[in-house]
Amino acid sequence: MLERTVNLKIEEAYPKLKAVLVEKGCRVLSEEPPRQICFKQGSLWGISPKTAKKTVNANFEPVDDGTRISCSSRLASDWKNITLIGCALAIVLVGLCVWMATDLTTFMATRVPSFWSCLIAVGSNVDLVAGQVFVNLTWGLAFFLSVVILLEAAIVVYVHSKIDAFVKGALNQLK
After folding, report:
1. What pLDDT was estimated at residue 173?
2. How much is the pLDDT for 170?
């Protein structure tokens, strides 16, 4: 949560912050002038703290000669859900790729029919070249998806740790 006290009366601070946020592409979800305003900001495909889809709440409180503005940001549930679902599907695909690669490797070594052996065997003929291609492909895909999962986890941690960066920039524009 960010708090900033500005040298503006509450009646001036509220419309100024609203104008700054709307200018930056925010959409007003709800407001109770001049006490509170709630915005949606960012994109479902955003991967930085400033571009990830989030909800920004701003509360205004008069103090002495100015206004205390308290802002909090939280990631939108659809942004979190799409990230979680994508990682879950990638984990399932990694498991499938590892299973396929180990199954085919074992089949090529032992010639004992297995679940995936039909990909490289027709009757008693075994295509070892195709088998090695499938094994290399599935290990490569498993590695690639594992890197994607790690990157996605790093993005989530980074975005979550700096979620207030967008609203901090907007508050800095109020003088």
Report:
1. 85
2. 87
pTM of the full structure: 0.82
Q: How far is Cα 100 from Cα 98, in angstroms, rounded to an integer? A: 5
Catalogue the long-range contacts made by 95-104 (C-beta closer than 8 Å, 24 or more residues apart). 97/138, 97/139, 97/141, 97/142, 97/145, 98/138, 98/139, 98/142, 100/134, 100/138, 101/134, 101/135, 101/138, 101/139, 101/142, 104/131, 104/134, 104/135, 104/138
Report the sign of the C-alpha dihedral through residues 67, 4, 47, 94, in that order: negative
- Residue type at 151? L
Which element (helix H / strand E) includes 107?
helix 77-110
Paired residues of 37 in beta bridges: 31, 58
Which two three-digit tokens encode residue 29? 């979800």
DSSP state of 64: T
Q: Kindly report, residue by residue over 27-65, the tens digit of the pLDDT.
A: 999 999 889 999 999 999 999 999 999 999 999 999 988
